[in-house]
Amino acid sequence: MSDRETVLELVKRLPPNVSFRDIVREIEFIAAVREGLEEIDQGQGVLIEAVEQMIESRTTK
Predict the structure, then answer these.
(1) From 10, 44, 46, 51, which residue has the greatest number of CB atoms within 10 Å?
(2) How many structural domains compose the chain?
(3) Sign of dihedral through CA atoms 58, 22, 26, 15?
(4) CB-based contacts of 36, cutoff 8 Å, min separation 6
(5) Max Cα-Cα span within the chain
(6) Which domain holds residue 12?
(7) What is the pTM of this model?
(8) Of 3, 32, 30, 28, whose CA–CA distance to 20 is shortest?
(9) Does residue 61 register a pLDDT over 70?
(10) Hey, CA dihedral for 53, 55, 58, 60, is it positive or negative?
(11) Measured between alpha carbons, how far is residue 37 from residues 7, 18, 22 in Å?
């Protein structure tokens, strides 16, 4: 599905009283997820263990 088609489907599923800001947030979220999946497909992802260490180092100070 193209980006345009994805956005059109997203907008169709949103409630009728949704704000422009909420629409933009939803589009940004979907774009970030797609970018992340592409990075994973290219082997550029971060291992969960590394993420856990980052979280631990920032929450135990």
Answers:
(1) 10
(2) 1
(3) positive
(4) 45
(5) 45
(6) 3-59
(7) 0.68
(8) 28
(9) no
(10) negative
(11) 17, 27, 23
φ, ψ for residue 60, nearest 5 deg: -105, 10
Q: How far apart are CA 27 and CA 6, in angstroms?
A: 9
- Report the C-alpha gap between 34 and 13 in whole angstroms: 19
pLDDT tens-digit readout, 2-60: 999 999 999 999 999 999 999 999 999 999 999 989 998 998 888 889 889 989 998 87
Query: What residue type is assigned to position 20 of the chain?
Result: F
Residue located via tokens 């994973």: 40
Task: Tell me the residue type at 25.
Answer: R
Which segments of 1-61 does DSSP mark as H helices, in order? Answer: 3-13, 20-41, 48-59
